[in-house]
Amino acid sequence: MLLKRFPNLTLVEVGDRVAELSAKIRAEYGLKVPDAIFVATGILNQADFFVTNDKQLKIVNKPKVLILEDILIGSGQS
Fold first, then answer.
1. Whether the Cβ atoms of residue 9 and residue 28 lie closer than 8 Å to each other
2. Is residue 7 part of a domain?
3. Could you tell me if residue 2 is inside a domain?
4. Number of H helices, E strands in the chain
5. Is residue 1 part of a domain?
6. Residue ranges of the PIN domain (predicted)?
7. Cα–Cα distance measured from residue 57 to residue 29, given in angstroms and rounded to the nearest whole number
């Protein structure tokens, strides 16, 4: 599997704790279900950052949301 080739990437199971927290996040921020699951998974696994291209996720304050486009512009690669 391609994702296993990334040494700093950890695949985690989505269980009841993620489901419960994602429901709370969805209610608080009005996120779509998949986005709430991503954020909840990051929180429960103590992620420092959440990297995405979805600018709407900037409303979430934990984990810190980094917009990929902004990162690339800052590095001069866009």
1. no
2. no
3. no
4. 3, 2
5. no
6. 6-61
7. 9
